[in-house]
Amino acid sequence: MRILLCEDDDQIAQSIQLALEKSGFTVQVERDGEAALFRGESETFDAVILDLGLPQMDGLTVLKRWRRANLSMPVLILTARGQWEERVEGIEAGADDYVVKPFHIMEIVARLRALIRRAGGHATARIPFGPYELDTRTQQVTEEGMPLDLSPQEYKLVSYLLHNRGRVVSQLEITEHLYRQDYERDSNAVEVLVARVRKRLTPDVIKTRRGFGYMLGEGY
């Protein structure tokens, strides 16, 4: 899952980024509102963490412009303690949730996971597909209750396809959402990853649409 983190405080941004990456997310950080606006409009993200107090352009203006452009990615806003007016205005402008500073980092992770689940139509952290089940809290896939030994990237691929169930996702989209931009990878990295997952689960879990990309197979 690819996250856009918009936060100008270096210490806060680094703490959130580290926690998200440890939890299996790929993170793009922007430090000011104008850069955040451009990044959100020009690239796709599974969710956004948006500080309202950004320089150059405030977070609320960024959010309003995203929503006017019909960008529907879930947005979690960060606000200062006591600024209830900001929180109300943020929700009315199209934010999906908010966290008040100071906060516990793992609260950010938990709320972000919940937003992404709801955006994908899932009410709980445990998502069944065929004889398997994916748990977003433990980052574990089980088969009839037995844990499967998936690598972090294998888990991310299954999770991304599951959260986009019913839709074909291209190799480029998978690459952008599973790997950091500075990560060195082979040109056939996605094909190799798909082949490994098919061996770990069953071959029909991931269906290939030649010339288009991949999706979960029927019945999953």
Automatic annotation (TrEMBL):
Keyword terms, alphabetized: DNA-binding, Phosphoprotein, Transcription, Transcription regulation, Two-component regulatory system
InterPro entries xref list: CheY-like_superfamily, OmpR/PhoB-type_DNA-bd, Sig_transdc_resp-reg_receiver, WalR-like, WH-like_DNA-bd_sf
Residues bearing the modification 4-aspartylphosphate: D51
Pfam families: Response_reg (PF00072), Trans_reg_C (PF00486)
Limits of the OmpR/PhoB-type domain: 124-218
Domain Response regulatory per the UniProt entry, residue ranges: 2-116
GO cellular component assignments: cytosol; protein-DNA complex
PROSITE patterns per record: OMPR_PHOB, RESPONSE_REGULATORY
GO BP term, pick one: regulation of DNA-templated transcription
GO molecular function, one term: phosphorelay response regulator activity
Record feature DNA-binding region, as residue ranges: 124-218
Signal peptide (from-to): none
Family annotation (Gene3D superfamilies): 3.40.50.2300, 6.10.250.690, Winged helix-like DNA-binding domain superfamily/Winged helix DNA-binding domain
Protein name per Swiss-Prot or TrEMBL: Two component transcriptional regulator, winged helix family
